[in-house]
Amino acid sequence: YSQFFKHYKASHFSQKIQSTSNILDYETKEEQTSSDRFISQMFLEIRLVSSTDLLYKFYNKPELVSAYPLLFNLLKSIDDIEYVKCLSGIGQWMKHCYMQFSGKLTQKQHNETTVSSVINDRNNTKLKKHWNQFVKGWNRFSDRKLNIESTAMTVPTLSQNPTYVFLDHCTSRTDMPGRYIVAIVEMLQDINNNFLQSVHSHRRRSIKDEEKKTENNDNTM
């Protein structure tokens, strides 16, 4: 039996070495393949394309619209969608003004209190960011014609200097200038909702097209 075990051990050890060698060879090949793939990608041509040019390609190739509805609708609304992000800051700024001053100021004080006094009093970085978002969202619609309760109005430009803006611009009211921010928030919400609805409708349409294609393929087989 001793001879048998000697041969068995030698054979088993040899197989183990061979197996380990095969694994190492495989891993080395995998690393080389992966490395080659990464190296080849390093030399891919990169070309900057503007959103306008990319949108033009979508209009020229309708199949891209159904394949990438989210990107298509984003490109169509990209200028407005950028300002939808201001909604959060606008809401936070208006909430702060309401919580701090509602019921504590007379109408006259409310109309005479400047935004700079609110910001400087708190010295809050987040508050300043909310204010900047408020101004950015507002001025997106500056000079926009509005029809409020059958009255034609134009959204005025809001100064970026908080010293020249008063709290009556920052609270939702039925009279001016508080009514402007109500209209602006509504317009931003409409932009957001229209974008989501258009994406959903395109997606639903593309799913139906895929189902039809699959059904036709099944019928032809």
Summarize the entry for a quick read:
This protein is mainly α and 221 residues long. It contains 10 helices and 2 strands, in the order H-H-H-H-H-H-H-H-H-E-E-H. Helix 4 (69-76) runs antiparallel to helix 10 and helix 6 crosses helix 9.
Globally, the shape reads: elongated
Number of strands: 2
Subunit arrangement of the protein: single chain
Helix content: over 70%
For the sheet with most strands, the description reads: 2 strands, antiparallel
Mean pLDDT: 78
- Poorly predicted runs: 1-10, 12-17
Biased composition (Basic and acidic residues): 207-221
Region (Disordered): 199-221
Keywords:
single chain; 221 residues; mainly alpha; two-stranded antiparallel sheet; 10 helices; 72% helix; 4% strand; disordered N terminus
Could you describe the 3D structure shown?
By secondary structure, the protein is mainly α. It has a domain at 86-196. The chain is built from ten helices and two strands. It has helices spanning 2-42, 51-60, 62-67, 69-76, 78-84, 86-101, 107-112, 115-122, 125-139, 178-220, and strands at 145-148, 151-154. Strands 1-2 form a two-stranded antiparallel sheet. The model is unreliable at 1-10 and 12-17 (pLDDT under 50).
